């Protein structure tokens, strides 16, 4: 949520940001905020004037009584003030509610470096790492390969749960766990505390983290409860300090959230009719940081560097793109995507999303930062995938697939798999 003081003092900055985002439809919302906020401030002056008048009348009545003068007129006026104040305060509350509701619908203020574009085709490549694989044999679709090795069963999962689910078995399960353990160990050495969060969040918490009007369609809701299955541990970790003040001297607070993720919408599967790339349920290790406003942009670079180091260790070629305005979403002020090379598709595909949400989430969640006895400011929050195992597994199955149908285990993951060098069939 944007700061109302920013809108009061620099409305053109917000207008320009909305225009860059291609969110011209939100301009009327901004103007409504400006008008309603002005009305609220004028009404607040009237309430303050009534309070002042009440105090003045109180002194006049007391002085008149001491002087044995008539107090009927001032007492009558004083008796009317509470009714006037009540009516105005109710209107104040209603106006404040309208302003807050409109503020919640506005996207975050863009960082000045965000490229302008209509969709992901206009994202700007910043760098590449590794040589894209060009195999001299035809790669098998990873879903078919898993079935051939008896490591995955899509049909039985479809039978009991529907499309978008899978039974993983045997060595691929250990590889999934190895990816998570490696990411946790990697981040732990860099000061990130592992967190196993609740897998369900209340609506009030979710409303602080996303524009629920847009996001609710991709989430699973518990029937009869104001609870949602988390779409990512980012959300559960982000809500952890709701309504709290963080000790500035202890920031940044760095976490590695680990959880399954649940998403209703899975979209298209690209070249493969069955597979792991887009699932209703998958595992992920997520980086999340609470920090001061002064440090968040340096931390944004740290988060993407961590993700890059993990994929370099896995020996997966990738590129990093700066997401354009049309591919940014409402929450982030700037976002990088790390895209792994897909030999099967012959293109780079997203495996990591890294966002600086500045104060947008923290203001909605009322998370502030400061020193004891000092000024308190709204904190900044950042998030980035460390590894979403389903997509990392696809990359491994494509890059480490051999002509004989076996799959080589990336060297960095072998210690987590009792030294296994290849994937075998499930027992």
**Going across the major beta sheet, what is the strand order?**
1-10-11-12-15-9-8-4
Q: What is the H/E order?
A: HHHHEHEHEHEEHHEHEEEHEEEHEEEH
CA(first)-CA(last) distance: 52 Å
Total DSSP helices = 13
Query: What structural class results from the helix and strand content?
Result: alpha+beta
Strand content: 15-25%
Radius of gyration: 28 Å
What is the β-strand count?
15
Overall shape: it is elongated
CATH topology of the largest domain: BirA Bifunctional Protein, domain 2
Percentage of helical residues? Answer: 40-55%
Largest sheet composition: 8 strands, mixed
CATH homologous superfamily placement of the largest domain: Bira Bifunctional Protein, Domain 2
What is the top-level CATH class of the largest domain? Alpha Beta
The total domain count is 2
List segments where confidence is low: pLDDT < 50 over at least 5 consecutive residues. Answer: none
Mean pLDDT: 93
CATH hierarchy: architecture of the largest domain: 2-Layer Sandwich
Question: What's a concise summary of this model?
Answer:
The chain has 427 residues and is an alpha+beta fold.
Fill in the keyword field for this structure:
427 residues; alpha+beta; Helix Hairpins; BirA Bifunctional Protein, domain 2; 2 domains; 15 strands
Descriptive overview:
With 427 residues, this protein is of the alpha+beta class. The chain is 41% helix and 19% strand. The chain folds into 2 domains: 101 residues, Serine-tRNA synthetase, tRNA binding domain (Helix Hairpins); 298 residues, Bira Bifunctional Protein, Domain 2 (BirA Bifunctional Protein, domain 2, 2-Layer Sandwich). The longest helix has 40 residues. The chain is elongated, with a radius of gyration of 28 Å.
